[in-house]
Amino acid sequence: MQLISAVIRPHRLNEVKEALFAVNIAGLTVSEVRGVGKQKTKVERYRGSEYKFDLMAKVKIEVAVTDDQLQTAIDTIRKAALTGEVGDGKIFITPLDEVVRIRTGERGEDAL
User: Fold this and answer.
1) d(CA 52, CA 88)
2) 87 CB contacts (<8 Å, ≥6 apart)?
3) What CATH number does the domain containing 19 carry?
4) Is 90 in a helix, a strand, or coil?
5) What's the pTM?
6) How many domains does the chain have?
7) What is the residue-level pLDDT of the chain in tens, covering all 112 positions?
8) In which domain, by residue range, is 20 found?
9) CA–CA separation, 89 vs 79, rounded Å?
């Protein structure tokens, strides 16, 4: 099992979610996050004052998948999140040793 953490543009969330559901991958956790990478600082002016936004608003999606679903999930997220511009995000994959469903006590892939 693997845990996929994808940091994407907020306006691409619905496309990514629907694309994952279309390939029978569900059970998402979504968090609003802020970060900085190659996209750099955004500067805006308001009433004569300059404001720097060092940390850009992003969305982090976490989804646990079986090893068999991993490549499909990566390809699906990448395709749905892609705009072709700097700041599209990143996908991180972490081995997942165990999953336990709280309600039933199921473990492993049965808990996904």
Assistant:
1) 20
2) 9, 37, 38, 39, 56
3) 3.30.70.120
4) strand
5) 0.84
6) 1
7) 999 999 999 999 999 999 999 999 989 999 999 887 776 666 777 787 877 777 788 999 999 999 999 999 999 999 999 999 988 999 999 999 999 999 999 999 999 8
8) 2-111
9) 12
